[in-house]
Design brief:
- Helix content is 0%, strand content 56%.
- The protein contains no helices and eleven strands.
- Strands 2, 4, 5, 6, 9, 10 and 11 form a seven-stranded mixed beta sheet that branches. The chain has a four-stranded antiparallel beta sheet with strand order 1-3-8-7, with no helix packed on it.
- 28% of the residues are buried.
- The model has no long low-confidence stretch (mean pLDDT 94).
Length: 117
């Protein structure tokens, strides 16, 4: 099993920045894709960004392109989400996830991001 622990959420003003971190433990050798999803009140969870094991394949939802950057450390067990030019509509609970071989997906507990206007 893989366990994920997120950190770095909080309150920011519009136009500000936050950096989220997600540390994986357990069977990290089997992790392939890691990423971030978010869920705002009253809305469905949406995928925000993902990164492959090699870091060569990265995806972003259109609404964050040019503002958010996902990265992964050399040991491939921690993933980051640098969020710049934050908007009130970025307010949500952000969840880290990790996809392992066989398609198993582990989720973090979530971290709240609140952007004030």
């Amino acid at each position: 099993q893989v366990q994920l622990v997120e950190s770095g959420g909080g309150l920011a003003q519009a136009g500000g920045s936050l950096r989220l971190s997600c540390a994986a433990s357990g069977r990290t050798f089997h992790i392939y894709t890691m990423g971030w999803s978010r869920q705002a009140p009253g809305k469905e969870r949406e995928s925000v960004a993902s990164i492959s094991r090699s870091g060569d394949y990265i995806t972003y939802v259109d609404s964050v392109k040019g503002r958010f950057t996902i990265s992964r450390d050399g040991a491939k067990s921690t993933v980051y989400l640098q969020m710049n030019s934050l908007k009130p509509e970025d307010t949500a609970v952000y969840y880290c996830y990790a996809v392992s071989g066989g398609g198993e997906t582990a989720w973090g507990q979530g971290t709240q991001v609140t952007v004030s206007s």
